[in-house]
Amino acid sequence: MAFWTQLGLLLWKNFTYRRRQTFQLLIEVAWPLFIFFILISVRLSYPPYEQHECHFPNKAMPSAGTLPWIQGIICNANNPCFRYPTPGESPGIVGNFNASIVSRLFSDAKRLLLYSQQDTSIKDVQKVLGKLRKLGNSSGL
């Protein structure tokens, strides 16, 4: 059979079936119209308003590394909207979190854990702990 013949027979069969099931036909036509009218009423109730161009701070993806990804989640938790482009929108910049609390925390931890011989911070901590031990022994704790 040709395409148009098959299409005509299929439409005739569909029309015959729909004519026998009038209630189902009314529901199938009325339901999409009902939803459409709800959408129109919502749109007319709340007209669109002008809003400035919105630039969000960049958030690194997990493939950029764990630290930039965590910084992106913590530092931009409130997801603010800026009128002008943010520094992280420049190409090639993974994150603009260099002055963030998380970045300083990780850099301090890295400095303490991977200290060199010239770094005296560990020796200072050991001196403080020694003095605290002496103070604890002398007070009878």
Automatic annotation (TrEMBL):
It comes from the Eukaryota. The gene is Abca1_0. The chain crosses the membrane at residues 25-46. This is ABCA1 protein. Keywords: Membrane, Transmembrane, Transmembrane helix.
